[in-house]
Amino acid sequence: MQIRISSVLSAGQKLFRISWRVTNTLLLLSVLALLYSAGWEYSVRRYLEGFSDAIVPADAAPEKRVQAILDWMRMGPTRSEETSPTGLAIRDPEKTLNYEQLLSVCGTATNAFLNLARSSDLEVRRLLLLSPDQNTKHVVAEVELNGRWVVVDPTYRVIQRNAAGEMLTRDELRNRQTFEEAIARIPGYPPQYTYENYVHVRVNKLPLGLRVRPILNHLFPRWEERLDWSLLVERESFFVLTLAAIATLVLFLLRQVLAWYADRSLKIPRFHLRSHASRARSAFFTTPEIK
Predict the structure, then answer these.
(1) Same-domain pairing of 102 and 228
(2) Same domain, 205 and 179
(3) What is the pLDDT of residue 97?
(4) Fewer beta carbons within 10 Å, N or C terminal of the chain?
C-alpha cells in the first residue's frame, strides 16, 4: 500500500514538474512577446502622430480635422504602387497610408482614416454595412462630432450630408429618402450601400460565430457600442499587444495556482524568486556588523 501511494505521488510530482516547466517557458515567451509588441505599438503610434501632425492643423476644430484627412486622401502626394497588392499587410498603418491600391479599397481606406483620425484626437469607430445574407458590402467610419456619431466614407473621401448640407448619422441614413439625397451629392456612389443592416465587428468569423452574437446581445446589451473594437481589429500591432497581455496574465495566474498546489499538496521544494531576491538584497545592501 505504501509503495502504491509513493508511486502515485511520484507520478503526480513528475506531472507537476512537466506542467511547471511548460508554464514557465510559455510565460517567459509571452513576456518577451509583450515587450516586443509594446515596442511595436509604440513605434506605430509615433509614426501616426508624426503623419497626422503633417497633414492635420493642430488647432483645427474636429470637423476641420476630419476634412483635412479626407482632403489628404483625395489629393495627397504620389503614392507607391505594388504590382501584387495582395501581399501587403492590410492591418499595418505604414502600408495602408502609403499604397494607392490600399487607399482605394473600402476596408483599408477606412483603416487608414481611423488610424489618422485617432492620432488627431478624434473619437472614431468603423461600421460594416451588411447585405441581406450577412456579408460585408461596404466599410465606413463613424466620427463623434458635436455629440453625434456622423458617418464618414473614406473610400469616397466624404462626410455623409443631406440636401441641406447637414451631417448624417447611420440611423438617419436608414431613411431611404435621406440616403438618396446623400448619395446624390457623391458621383458614382453605389446605391446598394444602404444602412438597413450594420455591425461594428464581425463575430461570425469566430468558431460558432453565428451563435456568439445573440449570446453577447443577451448578456451584454449594446456591447458593440460600449467598447471601441476598431483599434483591436484594424491595427495589427495593438491586436498582438492585447493577445500577449492576455496570455501573460493567464499564464502568470496559472503559475500561481501551480505554485500553491506544489507548496500545499505535493510539498515539492521549488525555487522561490521572492525569497532569493530578498536574500540577494540583504547580501548586497546590508552593512556587516563588526564585532
Answers:
(1) yes
(2) yes
(3) 78
(4) C
